[in-house]
Design goal:
CATH architecture of chain C: Orthogonal Bundle
Number of helices of chain C: 12
Number of strands of chain A: 12
Helix content of chain C: over 70%
Strand order of the largest sheet of chain A: 6-7-8-3-9-10-12-11
CATH superfamily of chain A: P-loop containing nucleotide triphosphate hydrolases
Radius of gyration of chain C: 25 Å
CATH topology of chain C: MetI-like fold
Largest sheet of chain C: none
CATH architecture of chain A: 3-Layer(aba) Sandwich
CATH topology of chain A: Rossmann fold
Number of domains of chain A: 1
Strand content of chain A: 15-25%
CATH superfamily of chain C: MetI-like
Mean pLDDT of chain C: 82
Oligomer: heterotrimer
Low-confidence stretches of chain A: 1-52
Largest sheet of chain A: 8 strands, mixed
Distance between the termini of chain C: 36 Å
Chains: A alpha/beta, B alpha/beta, C mainly alpha
Strand content of chain C: under 5%
Order of helices and strands of chain C: HHHHHHHHHHHH
Helix content of chain A: 25-40%
Number of domains of chain C: 1
Largest interface: A-B, 62 and 63 residues
């Protein structure tokens, strides 16, 4: 699996082309950035139509803005939270795409927008050549079979009143997969077996399991409808450290056996790096960098990615003693009032006097499918720009 | 002489209608002045209960506390509530996981600090305010003169944690206990707080007990590390010894099972099987036996003692062989 | 090896146990408290009494007895005499038998008033919770209006507008409960709407209707059941209040505690026990339902689990 993805990643420009291809309605969603982005990307190698078959999901300029309502009787919209603000990415069939970012960066909303669990404000999600963002009613409901989700909190995502059996059967029934009592039963046992739970679990209730076991039930529920894509939102962060590896290994085994495609959303870079073929880093509603897992670690180019990587503690004193940290000052700005220009400029230790606070950088390919949204990425990499102190800017959490 | 000496600490929770629950069982360790000691463990390991017991914060919660906690020759467990409160304000500081619920929401942060200063350091209101602003500046709260009159909800999580640290440090304690101080925070904010803590600790020569589930945090911060499992310490060593050659199968297993940022993509993880709910009682044997790859009959029948072994303390019948104990990545 | 394998077998056995639903669990927790048991005993006795009273009442409660009538004067109502444990009421009927049978009528009023209130309230709250949006806004403003009128005033207005019958009382009292139940269910369903397991069901492609009926409603019903138990207590009291104010049942013969209490108000100086016993009966029963409801509320509270 790893090898295969490595080669795909090697083919430069494949994914760029993917994002760029169906751009005709980008203008209608009214985003200057996306249009310019597509134009810049067009300079790269590879052409639009070639790679259609190995791409499973294409996200184009996806936007999810939540209105902020004020007033009691007569509600009015006082502003918007720009949770996801123009994201382009592609996920290839059979790969694991990791999405990292800190709380409030919009990674969860992106995952839900992709699954149409929240209504996107703009942009498109194309799943296996079907534009999911325009589906309605019964078609949308049926389309859900192929895209599933695994949740962070395994307890709250399982209905406390349903036995494991009815939790698992529910999805199958919704899509007419529960043909016959015998075969359904066999399928349930098979599902439980594939996530490492005994048959006796069928008649128990969620609260009778440990955290790790509950997460296995959640995974089995997703698998029950034979999906192609699974969006896993913080799949291990609610679990005990010693149990996390079990679930991560299980996810990997299942991927190999069933040819699943994963979008893994997590705040823990080590987890994402371990499980993902490619990683996208999000900051305040947009992608700031995207690269293969190994490359992201070896050569992070965006200042935020650098800071993020340097902040992760490694359980090894020798590494820790030598680690050079890039400490960010200040807090994450409010997604309701994002900074102008580059959204990271208020905290960026490499911030320059020009461009950074005026022009929003596009996610551009810097070679080998490594995409970065920074005006000065190359200069930073080459050492032509050096790090400087940043005066922390205050952020009111409720602003 | 040790600053804090914990001997045979045990905490048993008794509630009507339920079986008594032993959260902490015979825990002993000591902290030297200026030293940073880590207590690592997963949920249910007893690490937080240990810290609460040291601070005397379990007294009214139906907990039976045994053993002794000596702080500079004073036995803390037998102090009266008033004496303990006094001691807590002056010599012992504590930082909790959730900074919002640890701060009083209806009082300005300035007042929450000056309150401590006035009471324990006998300052006048004016002096206290000046000192509070200085403290806030010291913990890296930008624009402290203005921020001092704000309420906790007006600050971000990271800033609240800084305020909490400022309060804990207000009386220049000799010992600071930090219970998962960064668990609720994002990783970049965590890095800020951790570097602040280690900076303050080394500047003021304050001893620190760091309680966390994150082995990475411990690896960078602590001199001595205690690994707890099921309410007991199972391994104690200096951090290099512990991480380079973990001998207890639990510690070893943890290190093998957590994904490391510096490990290449796809490097397999070796999980610890089962979950904490599989534990057996320590009276019956080793609590970890049901999950342990090295378990033999003796582990299921005889509780292991914490013994000195290989330059560390170890509670195990069948420790990881020295040759195998080298943790990958440390090579 | 032997210890190892038996211990391990134990572990596996303990895994195979279980299968208790959350509702069962809550029920079991409820009846660990003595208060709940007291409530249950009171309510249980009341219900049993309501069922068997027509068969065990020593005399016919709906017929005057000449022995009693003979001694009945405007200033004297006969007290206990052989065969008549509590003597006569103001009409020469056997007071004790009427008191017993009164349990049935009182339960009838309480149960139906609550049931109607719950049903209408749940329809309103359920619609608001299931659809949200403008449906929710409209229905909730409606309940706000109902809530803004003091409950007894609301009941009095309804009772005054309708002919005096038992059903008038029931409906008037039921209306008091409607907005309460509506809000309660709506609130609980709104919380369910944004819960992970409802999101999970949506992501699975489960039909909207199935989600509402299988996930949202069952998980929201707990507080409604608790409130219904508590409402039974107040419904009985409210019904009595209406009767007391003369807005209740016009059939003075009916043996119902509220009505009996209402009709006894002018006779307090002649025979106070005519008011005293129905009043005590009402208080005890109301207390029983309240104790039961409160302990159920407590054990359903997730904060008190275990």
């Amino acid at each position: 699996m790893t090898d295969e993805t490595a080669t795909t990643t090697g083919a430069a420009g494949t994914e760029v082309a993917g994002t760029e291809a169906p751009r005709d309605d980008a203008a209608s969603t009214g985003v200057q950035d996306a249009v310019t982005a597509a134009e810049t990307d067009g300079a790269g190698p590879g052409d639009g139509a070639v790679d259609g078959d190995d791409v499973l999901v294409t996200v184009e300029d996806l936007k999810v803005h939540f209105p902020i309502k004020r007033g009691i009787v007569l509600e009015r919209t006082a502003g918007h939270v720009y949770a996801v603000d123009g994201i382009d990415l592609t996920i290839r069939r059979g790969e694991t795409y990791g999405l990292v970012g800190e709380s409030g960066c919009g990674k969860t909303t992106l995952g839900r927008g992709l699954l149409r669990l929240v209504e996107p404000t703009g942009g498109r999600v194309v799943f296996d050549d079907t534009d999911v963002s325009t589906l309605k009613g019964e078609t949308l409901r049926k389309s859900r079979r192929r895209m599933q989700m695994i949740f962070q909190d395994p307890l709250s995502s399982l209905d406390p009143r349903q036995s494991v059996e009815s939790i698992l059967v529910e999805g199958m029934r919704a899509h007419g997969l529960d043909s016959g009592k015998e075969s359904t039963r066999a399928r349930l046992v098979e599902l439980l077996d594939s996530v490492g739970l005994p048959e006796s679990a069928l008649h128990k209730y969620p609260h009778e399991f440990s955290g790790g076991q509950r997460q296995r039930i959640g995974i089995a529920r997703a698998l029950a409808v034979e999906p192609d894509l699974i969006v896993a939102d913080e799949p291990v962060s609610a679990l005990d450290v010693s149990v996390q590896a079990q679930v991560l290994n299980l996810l990997e085994q299942l991927q190999q056996r069933l040819g699943l495609t994963y979008l893994v959303i997590a705040h823990d870079l080590a987890v994402v790096r371990h499980i993902s073929d490619r990683i996208g880093v999000m900051y305040l509603g947009s992608l700031v960098e995207e690269a293969s897992s190994d490359e992201m670690y070896a050569e992070p180019m965006h200042p935020y990615t650098k800071a993020l990587l340097s902040a992760v503690p490694v359980p090894d004193p020798t590494v820790e003693d030598e680690r050079e940290q890039i400490l960010l000052t200040g807090d994450l700005p409010s997604p309701a009032n994002p900074p102008t220009g580059c959204r990271f400029h208020t905290r960026c230790p490499w911030k320059q006097d020009t461009l950074c606070d005026t022009d929003r950088p596009e996610l551009r390919d810097v070679g080998g499918g490594h995409r970065v949204a920074c005006h000065y990425a190359e200069d930073i990499l080459a050492g032509r720009i050096t790090r400087h102190e940043v005066e922390p800017e205050l952020v009111h959490p409720d602003a | 002489m040790a600053l804090l000496d914990v001997r045979d600490l045990s905490v048993v929770f008794k509630r009507k209608g339920t079986r008594p629950f032993t959260a902490v069982d015979g825990v002993s360790f000591s902290v030297e002045p200026g030293q940073t000691v880590g207590l690592v463990g997963e949920s249910g390991s007893g690490k937080s209960v240990t810290s609460l017991a040291i601070m005397g914060l379990l007294r009214k919660r139906g907990a039976e506390i045994g053993g002794s906690v000596t702080f500079e020759d004073t036995e803390l467990l037998t102090l009266s509530d008033k004496q303990l409160r006094d001691r807590r304000g002056r010599d012992l500081g504590m930082v909790f996981q959730d900074p919002l619920s640890s701060l009083n929401p209806v009082i300005t942060i300035g007042l929450q600090i000056t309150e401590v200063l006035e009471r324990h350091r006998g300052m006048s209101r004016k002096e206290a305010r000046v000192e509070a602003a200085e403290l806030l500046d010291r913990v890296g709260l930008p624009d402290p003169q203005r921020r001092i009159d704000e309420y906790p909800h007006q600050l971000s999580g990271g800033m609240r944690q800084r305020v909490l640290i400022a309060i804990a440090l207000a009386c220049r304690p000799k010992l600071l206990i930090a219970d998962e101080p960064t668990t609720a925070l994002d990783v970049t904010i965590q890095a800020q707080i951790l570097s602040l803590l280690s900076e303050l600790v080394s500047e003021t020569d304050t001893a620190l007990i760091m309680i966390t589930h994150d082995l990475g945090i411990v690896a960078g911060l602590c001199d001595d590390v205690n690994v707890m499992y099921g309410g007991r310490i199972v391994e104690r060593a200096q951090r290099h010894d512990l991480f380079d050659r973990s001998r207890h199968p639990y510690t070893h297993g943890l290190l093998q099972s957590i994904p490391r940022l510096d490990a290449p993509r796809g490097e397999p993880l070796t999980p610890i099987r089962g979950s904490v709910s599989d534990n057996i009682e320590w009276e019956q044997g080793c609590a970890f036996a049901p999950r342990c790859p090295n378990a033999t009959d003796v582990c299921w029948s005889e509780p292991p003692e914490l013994k000195a072994d290989d330059g560390r303390m170890l509670r195990c019948h069948n420790p990881v062989a020295i040759g195998d104990a080298v943790t990958e990545g440390a090579l | 090896m032997s210890i190892l394998s038996t211990r391990k077998a134990d572990k596996i056995d303990s895994l195979a146990e279980g299968g208790t639903s959350l509702a069962m669990d809550a029920l079991r927790r409820t009846f660990r408290s003595p208060v709940a048991i007291l409530g249950l005993v009171i309510v249980g006795l009341f219900v049993i009494l309501a069922i068997i009273s027509p068969f065990v009442a020593p005399k016919d409660p709906y017929r005057p007895y000449p022995e009693l009538k003979a001694e009945l004067t405007p200033s004297n109502i006969p007290g206990p005499m052989p065969g008549f444990l509590l003597g006569s009421d103001q009409n020469g009927y056997d007071f004790f038998s009427r008191l017993l049978v009164g349990a049935q009528q009182t339960l009838f009023v309480g149960v139906f008033a609550t049931l109607i209130g719950v049903t209408i309230g749940m329809i309103i709250g359920g619609l608001a919770g299931a659809f949200g949006g403008w449906v929710d806004s409209l229905l909730m403003r409606l309940t706000d209006i109902m809530l803004s009128i003091p409950s007894l005033l609301l009941a009095i207005s309804i009772a005054a507008l309708m002919p005096g019958s038992q059903w008038t009382v029931i409906i008037a009292v039921a209306m008091i409960g409607v907005p309460v139940f509506a809000r309660l269910l709506r609130g609980a369903m709104m919380a369910q709407r944004s819960s992970d397991h409802v999101l999970a069901a949506t992501a699975l492609g489960v039909k909207r209707r199935t989600i509402v009926f299988r996930h949202m409603l069952p998980n929201s019903i707990g507080p409604v059941i608790v409130q219904a138990t508590l409402t039974l207590a107040t419904a009985i009291i409210d019904a009595a209040a209406l009767s007391f104010l003369g807005l209740g049942d016009s059939d003075w013969r009916r043996a119902e505690w509220g009505l009996m209490l209402g009709n006894a108000q002018e006779l307090l100086s002649v025979k106070p026990s005519l008011a005293f016993f129905p009043a005590i009966a009402i208080i005890v029963v109301a207390l029983g339902f309240t104790l039961l409801g409160e302990s159920m509320r407590e054990s359903l509270d997730p904060k008190n689990r275990r």
